[in-house]
Amino acid sequence: MRNNRGKIRKLKAGTGALVLAVTLTLTGCMAGGGKKPSAGGVGRDAQGSLKVAYFNEQAFYQQYGNAFQAMFPNVQLEVVPTDTVFSGDDPVAGMEKLLAEQHPDALMLTEEQYAALANKGLLYDLDAAIKQDEFDLDAFAPTVIDLLKARGGGKLYGLSPSFSSRALYYNKGLFDQHGIPYPTDGMSWEEAMQLAARFPVKKDGDDPLYGLFQPSQTTEAFELVRTIGEAKGLSYADADAGTVTIDSPEWREIIAAVVDGYKSGSISMPSSQDGGMGGGISLQGAGGGRTFRIGGDSMRFMSGQAAMAIDDSMLMMMMGIGSRTGGADVSVKAAAPAGKGGPIQFKDIDWDVVTLPTDPSQPDVADGMSLENVFAINASSENVPVAWELLKYANGEQLARTNAMSAASLSSRTAFKKQEEGKNLDAFYALGVNAQILLQNLPEGFEASFGKLASEQIVQAADGKATVDEAVQAIQTQGQQLLTKALAGEE
Fold first, then answer.
1. N or C: which end of the chain has fewer CB within 10 A?
2. Signal peptide position in this chain (predicted)?
3. 3-state secondary structure of 85
4. Residue 378 near residue 61, CB atoms below 8 Å
């Protein structure tokens, strides 16, 4: 099973990522005798029906359907809602079932679904279509194409019009106030934690101050440990060998550093409840399709209570860029932070961003990027030409230009990078994909159970109820038991 931690984080945060399955049944553009047609597109005079299975009919027409209908006026559109795919326990299995029962030609998938279907041979290799149409992949951010190929086992089975990427935000005013140098692109994790430790921590009271806040969606104390370790090329388990490998000097050193940060308060301890969603902000895009949430912890960066925060582009939209770039199309609902009597008061912060911390051994890659939706074609489709037209439109320059100003996500097309005077927004685009993480093969359910176990032990160490050595030993011993059971297929 391929690693899908990034997408699991999004599902935990309740983002409600959409699934689009598009069924295309077109006449007049088919090769005879059931033979798969060439990958090239079709003209405006194509006739037939376009059956679209989408989360929400209104959202589909607003985002894609109306314009696509204008491009192909003789194609009849029909929308079939797919909300049941997400309401089920397993969105991947739900999409596989939809594929088998409805036989769609084109699909819009989450990153997790895309990886699963691609690696089962259920998606169409886009290479022929791209070459025949001379579709310009160079117009896309290389990291997006690299991630699509990595998730597809080396081949390109889909295109994604947007992506999410994390960066390290920092409050210039707090750094200036305390005489601490600003963070920089390419810092190591050790350097970032050292910067965080230089701030006078105030964990209690109505106006706390932290050196570093973790991402909005983080719910586990182990997540930062894992991120730092994987940046160094470490793995905590080897499924092929059947061994847990957390009891090593390298992992022990990382755990000790993070525990020290949790103890002192220089690094925020993640909220165990929905990524700090107590008092979070919900944002729903036009058309009702996609919901974003900013956790209460990230809100504290906006209120000036943290010197640095790791987060994605939604945070910068909330701090004012959205209102200056068409963000009025997004509705905002704010609540009081957990355990407090009133809403957080946002401040006019002088902020900027740098790249996520990395490791000197792998300075150009990070684990901060994910794909929000991926358009792909059924490998068994007999309607590849028109399915390809939909992919081209959904990932095309016209739609990218339209969405560039209002969307909270980052455009995959480099011509439409988000820009703001005086802000280092290139930090969101600069780092490549840590493909090593995606190649990990861990048994179903083990990652989640191991993360819970490790987090419990790290919290024990941070609370002074166990030493780091005791915590590491417990993680190693109990983690090995979890892996052995998972490999044996036991619950």
1. C
2. 1-31
3. helix
4. no
Under 8 Å between Cβ of 283 and 209: no
pLDDT of residue 374: 92
Judgement on whether residues 278 and 172 belong to the same structural domain of the protein: yes
Q: Residue 133: helix, strand or coil by DSSP?
A: helix
Q: At what angle do helices 249-264 and 468-487 cross, to 10 degrees?
A: 120
Give CA–CA dist 389/396, Å, rounded.
10
In the chain, what is the greatest distance between 2 CA atoms, to the nearest angstrom? 75
In this predicted structure, the answer to whether residue 158 has a pLDDT above a threshold of 80 is yes
Distance CA 139, CA 400 (A): 11
Do residues 342 and 409 both lie within one domain?
no
What do you get for the CA distance between the two ends of the chain, in Å? 16
pLDDT digits (tens, 9 = 90+) for 419-472: 888 899 999 999 998 877 877 788 988 999 999 999 999 999 999 999 999 999
Which structural domain range is residue 339 located in? 167-219+270-366
Question: What's the rounded Cα separation, in Å, for the pair 240 and 235?
Answer: 12
Instruction: State the burial class of residue 46 (Cβ atoms within 10 Å of its Cβ: 0-12, 13-18, 19+).
Output: buried
DSSP for 340-363, written as a single string: -SS--------EEEEPPPBBTTBT
Bridge-based pairing state of the strands 47-54 and 75-81: parallel
Q: Domain count of the chain?
A: 2
Per DSSP (E only), the strands in 101-227 are: 106-109, 158-159, 162-165, 167-171, 210-213
405 falls within a domain = yes
Beta bridge pairs of residue 123? 378
The CATH number of residue 420's host domain is 3.40.190.10
Domain boundary (419, 437, 455) is at: 437
**Residue 126, Cβ density class (10 Å: 0-12 exposed, 13-18 middle, ≥19 buried):** buried
Question: For the segment 367-410, what is each residue's pLDDT rounded down to a tens digit?
Answer: 888 998 899 998 988 788 888 888 999 999 999 998 877 677 89
**What is the per-residue pLDDT across 210-262, written as a single tens digit (0 to 9) for each?**
999 988 778 899 999 999 999 999 999 999 999 999 999 999 999 999 999 99
- The angle at the Cα of 29, spanning 28 to 34, to the nearest 5 degrees, equals 100
Alpha-carbon distance of 491 to 482, in angstroms, equals: 9
Q: Token pair 């905590």 is at which residue?
A: 236
Question: Using CA of residue 63, residue 67, residue 72, residue 76, what is the dihedral sign?
Answer: positive
Axis-axis angle for helices 111-119, 91-102 (nearest 10):
60
**What whole-number distance in Å separates Cα of residue 415 and Cα of residue 401?**
9
pTM score over 0.85: no
